[in-house]
Amino acid sequence: MDNQKYHIFARILHWGMAIIIIGLLISGLTKPSWPKDIQPHFYFWHKSFGMLVVFLFIARVLVKIFTKEPELPKELGKSPIFAAKIGWSILYMFMIAMPLSGYIASDAGGYPVPFFGLNIPDLISENKSLDKTVWFFHENLPRFFVIMIMLHVLAAVKHYYFDKINLFKKMF
Question: Is 50 exceeded by the pLDDT of residue 152?
Fold first, then answer.
């Protein structure tokens, strides 16, 4: 294995989850403008892909634990490396907080959580107060998640074009 690249499973999970999460963010942020007659279909697919993110997140953490990651180049400097680690931690927090908050809000609201035709078991009894509280986070976290994703991408682009450090080769 090339020590300058992430493990193949890490790269597949990175790009697969990126596509799914961006799709979920776009669908969730544009949901209010969707016609009412397609709302049930929207919820089915949004919740199914949201739960898929939970399972992929678990796989991603396991790959992170059991594979060696390439080190960041020292020429980046200590502050950018520290900032990258903080940024990745925040991205990981969003990757799990978004789908779990959707699951908890649906469960507490008394709504089923499908996973491509199967229903995820209820873990919480109906609780409208909890539903409203968690739903507030599920509706408002995406804006911050989008900002963090943009910062992640902009940092990689900045390092490539301005610092002449090709970090893209680690993830392709």
Answer: yes
Extended beta strands in the chain, E state: 113-115, 118-120
- Residue pair 6/14 in contact (Cβ under 8 Å)? The answer is yes
CB 134 within 8 A of CB 81: no
- Closest among 167, 161, 172 to 71, alpha carbons compared: 167
Look at residue 123 and give its three-state secondary structure.
coil
CB atoms within 10 A of CB 66: 9
CA angle 103, 108, 110 (to 5 degrees): 100
- pLDDT, residue 124, reads 92
Residue located via tokens 């979920």? 24
* Nearest alpha carbon to residue 61 among 17, 106, 105, 118: 17
- In this prediction the pTM is 0.91
Q: Cα torsion at 51, 150, 10, 57 (round to 10°)?
A: -20
Higher-confidence residue of 160 and 21: namely 21
Three-state SS at 7 = coil
